[in-house]
């Protein structure tokens, strides 16, 4: 009996070392589109977003919005989807995938209800270096701006056509660019 318990305890310890929790995602919705970000963590190699706007998300079918980033910049991974016309009451259904230390981790499906649409993303002068522990998927309003930098530059652009609306939207991932001295 003691041997069985020792083996069981060993298996539990080994399995607990292989677990990983995907960092909470923060969404900012503006009249220009939305941004999603996660904090950088050791071992993260890529960050992917798959989602649909005002419709269900499917893990097996192509989704209308597909974003990816291959580099963390200034301690975070940032993706942007440019699309005008968001309004309070719209929703974004999505899932994220993170490649970490060569292994893939996929979140469950998330539902994000838009409560407020900012006129623009927070400017660098509004930004704070204070990190806060907001609940997962909490909206960021004009009174709670996030820290973004004017040094974020467009890194990659893809055009995706949404089958239902036949509207083309652009998708941009961002890379930190050091200012010229």
From TrEMBL:
Molecular function (Gene Ontology), one example: carbohydrate binding
Top-level taxon of the source organism: Eukaryota
Alphabetical keyword list: Signal
Every CBM39 domain range: 20-119
Signal sequence region: 1-16
Disordered: annotated segments: 123-145
Pfam families: CBM39
Protein name: CBM39 domain-containing protein
Source species: Ignelater luminosus (Cucubano)
């Amino acid at each position: 009996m003691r041997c069985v318990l020792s083996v069981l305890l060993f298996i539990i310890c080994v399995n607990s070392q292989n677990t990983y929790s995907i960092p909470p995602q923060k969404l900012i919705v503006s009249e220009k589109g939305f941004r999603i970000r996660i904090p950088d963590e050791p071992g993260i190699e890529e960050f992917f977003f798959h989602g649909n706007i005002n419709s269900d998300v499917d893990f097996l079918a192509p989704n209308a919005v597909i974003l990816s980033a291959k580099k963390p910049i200034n301690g975070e991974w940032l993706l942007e989807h440019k699309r005008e016309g968001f309004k309070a009451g719209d929703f974004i259904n999505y899932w994220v995938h993170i490649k970490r230390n060569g292994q893939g981790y996929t979140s469950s499906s998330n539902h994000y209800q838009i409560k407020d649409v900012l006129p623009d993303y927070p400017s660098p002068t509004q930004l704070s270096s204070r990190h806060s522990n907001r609940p997962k998927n909490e909206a960021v309003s004009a009174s709670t701006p996030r820290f973004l930098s004017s040094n974020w530059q467009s890194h990659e652009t893809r055009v995706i056509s949404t089958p239902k609306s036949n509207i083309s939207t652009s998708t941009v991932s961002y890379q930190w660019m050091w200012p010229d001295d």
